[in-house]
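Bench log. Compound arrived from synthesis this morning; before running ITC I wanted a structural hypothesis for how FE2/S2 (inorganic) cluster sits in the protein. Inputs:
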Amino acid sequence: MGHLGEEQLERARRLIALYPERRSALIPLCHLAQAQHGWLTPEAIEDIAGLLGITPAEVQGTASFYDMLHTEPVGRHVVAVCTNIACMLAGAYELLEHAEAHLGVHVGQTTEDGEFTLEESECLAGCDIAPCAQVNHRFFGPLDEAGFDALVAELRAGTLSEVVPPHGVLCRVERAVGLLAHRQEGPGDGAAEEGGAGGEGLGGGPGGGGARP
Amino acid sequence: MITDAAPIVTRRVRQEGSHTLQGYLSTGGYEGLRAALSMAPEAVREEVDKASLLGRGGAGFPAGRKWSMLRKSPTTYLVVNGDESEPATFKDRLLIEHDPHQIIEGAVIAAYAIGARQAFVFCRGEFALGLERLQQACNDAYAYGALGPRILGSEFSLDLVVHPGAGAYICGEETALLESLEGKRGFPRIKPPYFPAAIGLYGEPTVVNNVETVSNLPWIVLHGGEAFAALGQGSSAGTRLFALSGRVERPGWYELEMSKTTFRDLVYDPSLGGGVRGGAALKAFIPGGVSAPWFGPERLDLGLDQEAVGAAGSMLGSGSVVVMDETSCAVRAAWRISRFFWRESCGQCTPCREGSGWIEKMLRRIELGAGREEDLDVLMDACDNIAPGVSWPPRQTTICVLGPSIPSSVASGIRMFRDEFLLHVKEGACPYGAAGEGGRR
Ligand SMILES: Cc1cc2nc3c(=O)[nH]c(=O)nc-3n(C[C@H](O)[C@H](O)[C@H](O)COP(=O)(O)O)c2cc1C
Ligand code: SF4
Ligand code: FES
């Protein structure tokens, strides 16, 4: 149920083939898995471990280091309110306080209907639109209380689905080409090899097997 | 003085479709690469050397010199650092979202100059739109022939991968970035021996350059290093992209000629910051990201110059300037910045891991009105344990410079606004009536 679908698996293999060492694809694969479920299910972690040839514990242990990778379920919309310096100077804590009251959850919690998970975030590099927030990593700001409520209403109504796609930051644009400038030839040899696009299963592609270039 | 120097890295970002291949080509895109490929790699390196292009990621190391330090090896990697997470820094996001081809063109030029055959652009994971635009640009650049085999008909071939981060400030530090790119936790590596130029990605020599740094390369190749060096002054050559935020009328990014423009221009000029919000008085400003010590209004006439700012006891860092006004609480600001470092410390080094936590807790206590006068000495002592002497530049006891950056705001706050800290203690509350919300967690 929480496993990667056939399409994700296919895409995962193509991603792995892009890297000189397959473990480098760990984070992209996690993003891919989150596009499907919103979070890293134990089954997805097993799948990723299998694809990379490492243990599920290694995947879990690495993923848990990163704020964007969720090892527990999240709501359909992850609302991250920045409270760092520029946003704080523009009233971010007051906004966050309001967000908690409006959604009826504390930071880190998900609304009962599964629509919203509220997060307090570090600087999102949107300081020119402070105070700002991201919803599934799309920017909104400057936000006042009324603006926040309107945003929540639109998200609930589904009128923002164009702007705010589901989870996963890799979901909309896919890498179109495999590696072309073959990296395994000697230095100074500019000859190209077409079609190194992997997709040949686990060991396939020029980057397979974790061999150093 | 606001000079009439034309913008370099932002010259097309306001144009409709600036992020598309078509938009890029119609505004001179990939001409710098064509020029570079007609030169020998050494000649490209020479132009960049002449340009005095200081790295725009924070440390300000000359790009040309960095390239010349690479260990000789059959395999060399180029990694473009687009992790931009230093609080108040938002210039690379602009370039990633609005001119991704310029980054790719710059990356190909850099790779050609250093002999790399594989490049990565590490893009902050939270930049969903940026990742889409970079990936689209990468796809289009392959189709156009600016990436892949025999680039633009030359003998040079390069593959480029757009790699997403996953939310960790520390991954902006170049060795942590390489760990992350290898699919591991973002733990900075010990230097020496792990200088990327010697032992970088997969153990091979690697150049890590910031997004804005490489975005300058197409222009430098086209116009020559001397033309770039003619802008600015001394080692602070060219223009630089500044991110202005906090209590100003017009927060935003501004590309300005280095050195000649001052902080006062940036904050007050009607075409730039437009002054402090509501005409309030400026209380203090952070000149280069939250790792930098603060300046008071008496420093406003300093030029935006790496050496001058360094000599005055801070740094231009990531080019982000934060303005605090008379309504901003210094304790709260120092607390929030400390909280950031505490949350983002990777935990490998005791002074950083423990020190950031203690400092955060003590500052929160003061902000909430439960502090004691002795806390100020304890805080300075904690700073001294992280960076002995609490001087500038800080002494380093840790694996990376995140640790030594922690004291900057704490010490600035206490040294510049001691009375304000004491007032919190005396009144048992924040005099700014901040309701203590900021200290609630
Ligand atoms: C904690 C920490 C965070 C950093 N974050 C970034 C970052 O987000 N982007 C960046 O380009 N450099 C960052 N740096 C600096 C990099 O380590 C490195 O110096 C830089 O990417 C080199 O590129 P440049 O020479 O072109 O500036 C950071 C450094 C430290 C210590
Ligand atoms: S200084 Fe802090 S962030 Fe840097 S390696 Fe040490 S613990 Fe990690
Ligand atoms: S401080 Fe909030 S986005 Fe930068």
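What the model suggests: Residues 24 and 192 of chain B are 41 Å apart (CA to CA). The first strand of chain B starts at residue 77 and ends at 82.
ITC booked for Thursday regardless.
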